[in-house]
Amino acid sequence: MNKFLNRDTISFIILTVFLVLAAEIVLNILFIITEPDVDTQRTQSQDISFTVSANKLSKEYNDNEVAADRKYDGKIVIVSGEIHSIGKDITDDAYIVIGGSGFLDGVQCFFTVSEQASIFRLSKGQHVKVKGEVRGKTIIEEMLSLMGVKAYGNVLVRNCRLQ
Q1: Strand 127-137 and strand 76-88: pairing?
Q2: Alpha-helical regions (H) of 4-163
Q3: What does each C-alpha distance from 22 to 10, 32, 83, 113 come to in angstroms?
Q4: CA distance 103 to 84
Q5: pLDDT by residue for the chain (163 residues), tens digit each?
Q6: Of the CATH numbers 2.40.50.140, 2.70.40.10, 3.40.50.12780, 1.20.1420.30, which one belongs to the domain with range 39-162?
Q7: CB 78 within 8 Å of CB 131
Q8: Secondary structure letter of residue 114 according to DSSP
């Protein structure tokens, strides 16, 4: 073995590489948590296409999803209504559901990690206004309709920020 690459030197190099990689991972996580993400910044910088109540938006989608998608999908909206639930989905994305009167009939507004702090202080029953991008209906509703089951579903709004 080369006298410059003894066991202690190799251990030191491996430890140094490990520590540099660990530091990079921690810094990347901190950057993700503290920096607003690009999608939310893009959405929030765009002009508002519609200002609508959550109940009206949900009703338009339930009455005619094709027409509602043509009107709203991909558009920037300010949607307002009463909070019915606050939670996280299976991918750990935070959301609030506003409007509607029961299960899967409101507007589900998703917040990125950088925006989650704004929903810590919210509570059910509170009236809010949220700016975000409409993304159609939930997949659950679409799967049920493929099976011939009439089902309602939340309208999805992404990259949200409280107004």
Answers
A1: antiparallel
A2: 7-34, 38-45, 54-63, 65-72, 139-146
A3: 18, 15, 40, 21
A4: 9
A5: 555 567 776 676 676 655 544 545 544 444 444 444 677 888 888 999 999 999 999 999 989 999 999 999 999 999 999 999 999 988 888 999 999 876 778 999 999 888 888 999 999 999 999 999 999 987 664 555 566 655 567 999 999 999 9
A6: 2.40.50.140
A7: yes
A8: G
Domain ranges of the chain: 7-34, 39-162
Q: How far apart are CA 56 and CA 52, in angstroms?
A: 7
> To which residue do tokens 């999608």 refer?
39
Tokens 């520590």, located at residue: 19
N residues, the chain: 163
Residue (of 99, 102, 120, 101) closest to 111 by Cα position: 120
pTM above 0.85, yes or no: no
What does the buried/exposed string (b/e) look like for 55-64 if buried means 16 or more CB atoms within 10 Å of the residue's CB? bebbbbbbee
